[in-house]
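User: Can you predict the 3D structure for this chain?
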Amino acid sequence: MPAVLPPPDLEAYLARIGYAGPRAATADVLTAIHAAHAGTIPFENLDILLGRTIATDLPAITRKLVHDRRGGYCFEQNALLGAALRALGFTVAPLLGRVRWQVPADVATPLVHQVLLVGTADAGPRLADVGFGSMSLTRPLRLVEDEEQPSGLEPRRLVRRGPLLAHQARLGETWGDVYTFVPEPVADVDLELGNWYACAHPDSAFRHQLRASLTLPDRRHTLLNRDLTVRHAEGRVERHVIAEADELLAVLASHFGLHFPAGTRFALRADVPWPT
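Assistant: Here is the predicted structure, written as structure tokens:
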């Protein structure tokens, strides 16, 4: 049976994202909850760099992202959003995609990005995704092809590639694939396999790079190893290189709401303070 947040955890989740609006299974409610989640719970892979396995059972995700006020990546973020939406009466199906953002066309990528197909009572299905980090959606997309749609800082669209749909974002005048996917539900075992690859496979980027991102209505904070970028809606970009590990902890707290004990170091190797 698909995971559904129990009532106490649903209330805690809605409080965590600051949502106090209507609860009908409508497109407007989905859009409002999606935006609140995206602007509150940061994307991050820090547990992997602390040598921890990413658990994807709902109690573990709820404890980490809601009660411990941490962030997570797609297999945590979208699982939590999906469970909350089901509790509110939405129909939700998980999908898997292949990451294509800034990946050369001739490089194959695995099925390691979880997204959601959400049915609404009044306006048909939507693609929801709060777990892509630097290119996460702030609002769900209608399942229409070749039509530009607003979503936060960059316009988005879906284009057909044979049996696949490509989710694209436009930077300036250039459209680029964010990921490709088949709009068909996948089994839990497929999600488990994708999560294992993302957090444990030696070739996974999450084992070699420190990443955090938070998309607010007017700007996006992105951290890649030492490089902090704040991209504003009007196009202005601020960049800062983090000088040392204690500054990293301060940046995680100030820009992403992530608090760790003094002296915490994020690395699978003990000889570096965090991946470079």
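The domain at 7-256 is CATH 3.30.2140.20 (Arylamine N-acetyltransferase fold). The chain has a mean pLDDT of 95.
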